[in-house]
């Protein structure tokens, strides 16, 4: 399942409009793939985010180091801020909280929270890991 949301890249006192394509797949149930597309520019930057972390960020500050998230906008929780850091640089992004919440609700209908581990074939995953060593 996929969804596309508007996102603002916040740089100093300026914001740049972008789009983010969120993708969730039942065979990788802990992960939300976020592909950021700068408007009017080529290229995509993709991050792998924790579904559980995104859900928790709608209620309060979470994360450390390379990925941190928190709600903004007072009691209405109008936006979700995501701070990303890598060796290539850092970014502060702002997404609409309602759009993120709606996307997460849809993911729960695909794989309910707590049922993620039932989607893994642990033996096959371990065999694949060992074959690579």
Counting DSSP E segments of at least 2 residues, the number of strands comes to 8
What's the CATH H-level homologous superfamily? Answer: Sporulation-specific cell division protein SsgB
CATH topology: Transcriptional Co-activator pc4, Chain A
- Biggest beta sheet summary: 8 strands, antiparallel
Order of helices and strands: EEEEHEEEEHH
Q: What is the CATH first-level class name?
A: Mainly Beta
Give the low-pLDDT segments.
none
> Shape from CA axes?
globular
Distance between the termini: 33 Å
Strand content: over 45%
The spatial strand order of the largest sheet comes to 4-3-2-1-8-7-6-5
Give the name of the CATH architecture: Roll
Share of helix among residues? 10-25%
Total of domains: 1
Round the mean pLDDT to the nearest integer and report it.
Answer: 87
Radius of gyration from CA coordinates:
16 Å
Enumerate how many helices there are, as a single number.
Answer: 3
Structural class: alpha+beta
């Amino acid at each position: 399942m996929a969804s596309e949301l508007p996102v603002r890249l916040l740089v100093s006192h300026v914001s740049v409009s972008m789009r983010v394509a969120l993708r969730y797949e039942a065979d990788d149930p802990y992960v939300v793939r976020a592909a950021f597309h700068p408007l009017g520019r080529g290229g995509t930057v993709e991050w792998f985010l924790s579904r559980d972390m995104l859900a928790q960020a709608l209620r309060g500050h979470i994360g450390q180091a390379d990925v941190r998230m928190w709600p903004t906008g007072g009691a209405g929780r109008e936006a979700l801020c995501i701070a990303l850091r890598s060796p290539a640089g850092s970014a502060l992004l702002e997404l609409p909280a309602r759009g993120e919440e709606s996307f997460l609700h849809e993911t729960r209908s695909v794989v309910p929270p707590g049922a993620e581990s039932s989607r893994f074939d642990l033996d096959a995953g371990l065999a694949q890991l060992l074959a690579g060593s």
